[in-house]
Design goal:
Layout (H helix, E strand, L loop, with lengths): L3 E5 L2 H10 L3 H7 L9 H8 L9 E7 L2 E11 L2 E8 L8 H12 L5 E6 L3 H9 L3 E10 L4 E10 L1
Parallel strand pairs: 4-5
Antiparallel strand pairs: 1-2, 2-3, 3-4, 5-7, 6-7
């Protein structure tokens, strides 16, 4: 089995991670993306400062030493939230589930919340495999889809 490792995200990683979100299918599934997803400058301006924010735990996901995604804990409205992004070329291989399992060993803040577009079955399965429980449903504006969509909310106690 291939080896998944996590390491602290660096400024150099951001250039690689930016390219993963250029895929239109990946943006559609993620749904809640930056307003200018095709602009490297906007991406770096948004995510660069996060690297030095003590409330954010940014990790780069490596598969056999190659960068294949990112995972992070951030705080929003007083809650710890999880986010992750896997290069589309690696979807369906268990990378996100294995990375999240490892991340949860590093990040001890609980409860921790996760959200997904209701139709993002892959992301929902990842959260559920890692012990997150469905807490509710709602609506959210998905910039990349240009409309409000159904979303689901999970929590790990």
């Amino acid at each position: 089995m291939s080896e998944i490792t996590l390491r602290k995200t660096t400024a150099e990683d951001l250039h690689i991670l930016f390219h993963f979100q250029l895929d239109a299918d990946a943006r559609f599934m993620a749904a809640f993306t930056p307003k200018q997803p095709l602009s490297l400058e906007a991406y770096l301006a948004k995510y660069g400062p996060f690297l030095n924010d003590a409330t954010i735990n940014n990790q780069t996901i490596l598969l056999d030493g190659k960068i294949v995604g990112s995972i992070a804990k951030f705080e929003m409205n007083g809650n710890a939230e999880i986010t992750y992004w896997i290069d589309k070329a690696y979807w369906g291989r268990g990378v996100a589930s294995r990375a999240l399992q490892q991340f949860l060993q590093l990040e001890k803040m609980r409860p921790i919340h996760g959200a997904a577009a209701a139709d993002n079955i892959g992301s929902r399965k990842v959260l559920e495999k890692c012990g997150f429980k469905l807490q509710g449903e709602g609506k959210g504006l998905a910039d990349c889809r240009g409309k409000e969509i159904d979303e689901v909310y999970y929590c790990l106690e």
